[in-house]
Sequence to fold (355 residues):
Amino acid sequence: MTIHLSSDDCLLAIESTCDETAAAVITRSGCVLGECVATQETLHEQFAGVVPEIAARAHLERILPVIDTAIVQSRIAMDRLVAVAVATHPGLPGSLLVGLSAAKALALAWSKPLVGINHVQAHVYACGMGHGSSIYPCIGFVVSGGHTSLYHCHSATDWAYLGGTIDDAAGEAFDKVAVMLGLPFPGGPQLSALASSGNPRAIQFPRPLLDDHTRLDFSFSGLKTAVRYHIAGTGQKDWSLIELSDQDKMDIAACFQQSVIDCLVGKAVLAVKKTGLKRICLGGGVAANRRLREQLQAACDSKGIELLIAAPELCTDNAVMGALAWEKIERGEYDSLELDAQPGLLRPALGAKRR
Fold:
């Protein structure tokens, strides 16, 4: 069934998969009428990472004010609201349930359909917002604190898993190395800023799995360990007592970042070679990294590959990318109030069959 929509029709999208509480009102034409994002950085700073229980409690406090702000900004009449969309997977279980519960309550109170969306698919969909034409089929490449994965995207919601990290995600590795360098949370952006003043050739860190052309997988745990041993000394685990000069920190940051980027760029290009597709769509928090954007663009230009990257403000978790729900709404694919959160979808267990 195909639903006929007006360009002025609106949806409310809700995002609470990790530590950002977000809501947005988006028209079918892609115009953002209202949006609000509440961050939790100060809550998790002392732990140098996201604490799931703290994140869920913060979502509980912020979800309704965030939604109210987006609705008030939009100034829409309720008859223009077509549906309530919410990210239901993947993500932190408690965080997902807060957003889903709010979406269900509003859908019931307003007598509006409910639409569950995939957070990872939404990151890739964000690459096409404002593009003017369909971005599919493509290689979907999501690089963030929780995900480093490649997909063959036949359409916005029909995906096949190609490969991904077998341990740490790229953003997770950035954050952990940032802790070693004594950088404040969130560490990834801080490390990238520090790296801009360092020499990316000063230290030869490993590029795990880069030379394995049979797999589209990533591994950053060993690279993280190599950084630790470089700081503390081979075989030594306690890096916290080592005092590094500012130049040492800048060079370590630059060389670590370059190793990660080389792996990301190399596997993305290999995915194009293996699938025959000629378009890569890059999304996720790490996609905001300027050096990654530049080097992947250069690699794609040299090989005649089209590269689409989400706008920097749409790379980190937000509700605007919930516009993905329009793809399901147009097909009349709504969800019942029995919809549940599914924290681990789109990252198959090791050894799972790949298409």
Remarks:
- The chain has two domains: 10-125+316-330, 134-309.
- Residues 246-275 form the longest helix (30 residues).
- The domain at 134-309 is CATH 3.30.420.40 (Nucleotidyltransferase; domain 5).
